[in-house]
Structures are given as structure tokens and as C-alpha cells.
Design goal:
By secondary structure, the chain is of the alpha/beta class. The strands form 2 sheets. It has an 8-stranded parallel β-sheet with strand order 1-2-3-4-6-8-9-10. Strands 5-7 form a two-stranded antiparallel sheet. Helix 3 packs across helix 14, helix 5 runs parallel beside helix 6 and helix 8 runs parallel beside helix 9. The longest helix has 21 residues. The termini are far apart. Bound molecules: alpha-D-psicofuranose (PSV) and manganese (II) ion. Manganese (II) ion binds next to loops.
Length: 401
């Protein structure tokens, strides 16, 4: 135990497990929510409609703002273009009125017939230019919304060996990205997301962190990698990638979610809480926690669960794992590592992982005027009943609106 425990820890309360230093770090944490998490989503088999689902970006923002009101953790909302096309001055004002602001702008080159065989990599310059123009429009939107980041995820690749000129596509991707990058303002950034497969099954043009890193490094300082935790082959050591990208100064953002099999987009920490712990530990180790250069975001689709509660659960899970990772006794860990004490090092690590920080976090939340149990508070708030009664008629939002 630290000698200054009496000074830094609140004795006699469950918060005592979390030092003031840890609480200060937790107080600074922010996690961006994706607007699309509040619309309907599903699988290729069925999209289930849910009463109260937003019909437009304004209603999505209102729902996202509930998560922030309940947790104090989610002050910004990412938009998807064209799904969230609207009067952005009004949307920005609406977000401010609701106590949040607009965040990352996500482009979309995966829902247009022209992009069947690629967008930024397409053989045909007309189609490439169309995809580049879409990104330039996204940057126009960013100018209006005050957003810093343009997030690009590309659904490009091929299904069969021999189908595509992989090398040529990589070269064209670079040329296209250069044109987009050139349009960024001084304070704007481009984050390039990778994903190992789907919708293409043989090759994907940006399948891994190395390809994203190579592409963004060729652009310049304002281009970085986005790491979506669901976009790796099973068994991948994601925390190693986190460590490496932080070491290289190229980790721009996270899309947090969890997965059992493929890109499942489930609640963060649901499938493998220990993996989330290991990732957050490396974030802290690499200086990425509460570092504005490393944007924490969720990228989720709630197919069967309540969407506002699903997002709330996710941000709370990130907060909980951050608290646990901050509990790692780094001095003891380092000493064990240096002396080659394998078991002691592992025990230090696991001690922190197994610490139950939930009562401490509940008490701390209350001390800051937030509900001790945000999930319960939402259920008691009447908000869900209200939106179900009010949002009748119109077209519920989903992938495509
Ligand atoms: C598709 O896999 C995806 O989930 C990517 O992760 C993007 O971030 C997101 O869609 C929105 O375009
Ligand atoms: Mn993503």
C-alpha cells in the first residue's frame, strides 16, 4: 500500500479502493457515441423495429444525450453521412441544447451501386472521383458541425483470387486519400479504419493496422489509424497493436465494441471483459488515456436490446475497466518484470483485473450528482415511455437513414 494512502484515499467508504488520482483520471474520461447505434439495425436475416426508435438525426441526438446525462461519460456524438444529412446548424444547436456536441464524421462508400467493385480504389476514375467528392462533402459537413475527425472505413476488396489487381488498388487508394487529405483544415484529421474481412471475403484493401499505418503515414501528421476492436481475426493480440500504434504516435481513435465470432458489434466488454482490461491497460501505459489525440468511440449495433441502455452499459463497462486498469500496481509489476518473476508479474496484473470497483464507482457517481445506477435510473426516468408515445408514424432510422 502507498505511504500516502491516508491522504489520497477516502477511508471508510467503498471509494477507498480508488485513489483520488484514479478518480481524477476517471472524471476526465469521455467516450463518443455513434448516432447509428440509436437507429434500428440487425443482421442480414432481419432488422427488428423497436417502438420509440428515432426517425431523424435530431431524435438520435436526444437519445444519445440521455446516455451522457446518466453517466457523464459521453459528451459527443459521431454522425454518419449520408444517413444523418440534415440542417447541420440546427443539429449543432439541438445537440448543445441537449448538453452534447457533434463529433466524428463517418463517410459511407458502401451503399451505392457504383461502388460494387470499389470506391477510392476503383479502376474507373469517374467512380473514384465520386467517392473522393463524397469525402470532400463530409469535410464540408465537419466545417459546419465543428468536428475534428473524418473517419473512413472502406468496404473494398475482392471475393476471388485473380479478381482484382491488389497492388494497383493500393496505389489508387493512396492517390485518392491524398486528395481527401489535402482538403483537411489545420485542426482536422483523417482516421483510417481497417477490417480484416467483410463484405469482401478474399482480399480487403485495408485489412489490418499495418496497411492503415502505411497508408496514413504516407499522407502526413493529420492522418491516423482507427482501431475497431471487432475488426481482427479471432485470437489476435489487440493490445499489442494498441501498444505499437501508441508507440508510433499513430493511434487516432478507437471504435469499441465486442465480438464472439466476426464483426458482431456487441456491447463493449460483453464477450471478453479481460481483453478490454488488457487493451485499456496498454492505452494507459502508452499515454493514450484522456489524451485528446486518442479519441474513444463506440461502434455498435443493438439488434435485440434497448439501444439507450445498450450504449449506457457500454460506456459504464469502459469506465469500469479503466478503473481496474488504473489499479495495476505498476511499480510492483515493473519490479517483477525486471527480475524475471513471471508469476508475480501476472499476479499483480490479475489482482487489478479481479478488483470489484463497481460499489466504488456507484458511490463516486452519486457524489458527483449522477445516478449510482444509471441503468436503473433510465428505467425509472420515463424517457423510454415518452419516446414510444411521441414517436409514432414516420420512418424509423436504420442503416440507410
Ligand atoms: C462496418 O464494419 C462498420 O461497423 C465500420 O466499423 C464503421 O466504423 C461503421 O461500420 C460505420 O461506417
Ligand atoms: Mn467501426
Amino acid at each position: 500500500m502507498a505511504a500516502d494512502e491516508g491522504r489520497t484515499r477516502k477511508k471508510g467508504t467503498s471509494m477507498g479502493i480508488l485513489s483520488q488520482d484514479i478518480l481524477d483520471q476517471l472524471a476526465k474520461q469521455s467516450i463518443e457515441l455513434p448516432s447509428w447505434a440509436f437507429g434500428n439495425s440487425g443482421t442480414r436475416f432481419k432488422v427488428f423495429g423497436t417502438p420509440g426508435t428515432p426517425r431523424d438525426p435530431f431524435e438520435k441526438i436526444s437519445d444519445a444525450a440521455q446516455v451522457h446525462k446518466l453517466t457523464g461519460l459521453a459528451p459527443t456524438v459521431a454522425l454518419h453521412i449520408p444517413w444523418d444529412l440534415s440542417d447541420f446548424d440546427a443539429l449543432r444547436k439541438h445537440a448543445e441544447d441537449e448538453g452534447v456536441s457533434l463529433g466524428t464524421i463517418n463517410s459511407n462508400t458502401f451503399q451505392d451501386d457504383d461502388y460494387k467493385f470499389g470506391a477510392l480504389t476503383h479502376e474507373d476514375a469517374t467512380i473514384r472521383n465520386k467517392a473522393i467528392d463524397h469525402h470532400l462533402q463530409c469535410i464540408d459537413v465537419m466545417d459546419k458541425t465543428g468536428s475534428r475527425d473524418l473517419k473512413i472505413w472502406l468496404a473494398e476488396g475482392s471475393n476471388y483470387p485473380g479478381q482484382a489487381d491488389m497492388r494497383g488498388r493500393q496505389d489508387r487508394l493512396h492517390e485518392s486519400l491524398e486528395k481527401i487529405y489535402a482538403r483537411l483544415g489545420d485542426d482536422q484529421r483523417l482516421v483510417l479504419e481497417y477490417k480484416f474481412f467483410e463484405p469482401s471475403f478474399y482480399h480487403t484493401d485495408v485489412p489490418d493496422w499495418g496497411t492503415s499505418y502505411a497508408q496514413v503515414s504516407a499522407l502526413g501528421e493529420k492522418a491516423l489509424v482507427c482501431l475497431d476492436t471487432g475488426h481482427h481475426a479471432p485470437g489476435t493480440n489487440i493490445e499489442f497493436i494498441v501498444m505499437q500504434l501508441l508507440r508510433l504516435g499513430k493511434l487516432g481513435s478507437f471504435d469499441f465494441n465486442s465480438r464472439f465470432y466476426a464483426d458482431d458489434d456487441l456491447i463493449v466488454g460483453a464477450a471478453d471483459p479481460f481483453q478490454l482490461f488488457r487493451i485499456v491497460f496498454e492505452v494507459i501505459r502508452g499515454g493514450g488515456l484522456n489524451n485528446p489525440d486518442v479519441q474513444f468511440m463506440l461502434d455498435q449495433c443493438h439488434n435485440v436490446e434497448n439501444k439507450i441502455l445498450g450504449q449506457t452499459r457500454s460506456v459504464l463497462n469502459v469506465q469500469e475497466m479503466t478503473a481496474r486498469a488504473l489499479l495495476v500496481d505498476t511499480e510492483a509489476l515493473r519490479a517483477a518484470q525486471v527480475s524475471g518473476d513471471v508469476l508475480a508479474a501476472n499476479q499483480v496484473f490479475m489482482d487489478a483485473f479481479y478488483s470489484d470497483v463497481r460499489p466504488a464507482l456507484a458511490e463516486w457517481r452519486e457524489s458527483r450528482g449522477l445516478p449510482a445506477d444509471p441503468m436503473q435510473a433510465f428505467l425509472a426516468s420515463g424517457y423510454q415511455e415518452k419516446i414510444e408515445a411521441e414517436r409514432v408514424g414516420g420512418q424509423q432510422a436504420g442503416w440507410g437513414a
